């Protein structure tokens, strides 16, 4: 598709390129997605998120983390969606330390009370066995949702804390 556009003389704008990235991602053509990202003359956070999200969906957490670090050099200010996704990556890799570093960066960006970041943090800490830390984040949340309650219980259950699940 991309080669056809270029060969026909069509010069896509950033919006169109992001749509082409998404199309290739949805078709499972991640090697093409990575190639296109490298070849794009202009990229934005949507471009990066499309590719990182595709890698996460494939379970390529190492690739997603490497790409995040590359993105961070180009866009050092990111939002809650980025931190939530990267906390999922840290969870998938079992890297509590990296998750804590991401949480620290989110706090610096003023996202400490963001529900998406807090939920992802509870999930990451629960899956990685930092049950007390997950509980602390949960306790500090101004508004709890069904999702956050379930994440807290799932972390407890995953590590054999059945009584704590019942208490929650």
TrEMBL record:
UniProt key word Repeat: yes
Pfam families named among the record's database cross-references: PPR
MF annotations from Gene Ontology: RNA binding
Alphabetized UniProt keyword annotations: Repeat
InterPro entries listed in its UniProt record: PPR_At4g14850-like_plant, PPR_rpt, TPR-like_helical_dom_sf
One GO BP annotation of this record: RNA modification
UniProt cross-references to NCBIfam families, sorted A to Z: PPR (TIGR00756)
The protein, known as: Pentatricopeptide repeat-containing protein
């Amino acid at each position: 598709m991309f080669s056809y556009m270029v060969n026909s003389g069509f010069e896509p704008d950033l919006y169109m390129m992001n749509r082409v990235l998404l199309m290739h991602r949805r078709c499972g053509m991640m090697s093409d997605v990575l190639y296109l990202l490298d070849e794009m003359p202009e990229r934005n956070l949507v471009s990066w998120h499309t590719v990182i999200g595709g890698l996460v969906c494939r379970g390529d957490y190492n690739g997603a983390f490497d790409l995040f670090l590359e993105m961070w050099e180009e866009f050092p200010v990111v939002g809650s969606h980025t931190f939530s996704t990267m906390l999922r990556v840290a969870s998938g890799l079992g890297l509590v330390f990296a998750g804590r570093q991401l949480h620290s960066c989110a706090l610096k960006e003023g996202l400490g009370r963001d529900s998406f970041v807090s939920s992802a943090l509870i999930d990451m800490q629960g899956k990685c066995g930092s049950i007390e830390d997950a509980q602390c984040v949960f306790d500090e949340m101004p508004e709890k949702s069904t999702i956050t309650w379930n994440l807290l219980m799932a972390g407890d259950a995953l590590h054999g804390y059945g009584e704590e699940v019942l208490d929650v």
